[in-house]
Amino acid sequence: MKVLRWTGAELRDGAAELAALLADTVAGGASVGFLAPLTRAEAAAWWRERAAEAAAGRLAVWVAVDGTGRVAGTVSLARPDKPNSRHRAELVKLMVHRSARGQGLGRRLLATAEHAAAADGITLLHLDTETGSPAEHLYRSAGWTEAGTIPDYALSPDGELRGTTLYFKRPAAPAPPRASAATG
């Protein structure tokens, strides 16, 4: 499985593949901002709308592609545009296709985004996820700290009000390059 950062053009051109992932995620009951049923056309349009943000550097999108070329997962980092918040980013839309779950792909995507954030000088990450969802276990086990819960925050894909739990993490700075014995 390859995990690649997609440019704005790749995001626009690959919107249909990402739409299949988004539609599967919503059909599986994950609360990622959409109500069921979500058509692939609606999902593709949503992804194409993100292309300009990615091209401008306000959104970084990583895509996991399996050996057949199918998109199996994605994660994004959204950068704020305010001068007082350029040290932080929001982790958004961590999704793994139902057929690829349980293989560590969500953890790999999460680590990819965290490492990239640290390398880019981001000192604070934050996210929100549906309270009681399986994603909470992933974030806690990856060292994210719960900041609090907001009741009745959003509708689930099936239209029920659900709470959201906020998390944050300070990504570790990348290790400095090791000096080789031959340099001096």
Automatic annotation (TrEMBL):
The keyword Iron-sulfur does not apply. Pfam families: Acetyltransf_1 (PF00583). PANTHER family: AMINOALKYLPHOSPHONATE N-ACETYLTRANSFERASE-RELATED, AMINOALKYLPHOSPHONATE N-ACETYLTRANSFERASE-RELATED-RELATED. Residues 9-173 form the N-acetyltransferase domain. The keyword Acyltransferase applies. CDD domains: NAT_SF. It comes from Streptomyces albidocamelliae. It comes from the Bacteria. Keywords: Acyltransferase, Transferase. This is GNAT family N-acetyltransferase. The lineage of its organism: Bacteria, Bacillati, Actinomycetota, Actinomycetes, Kitasatosporales.
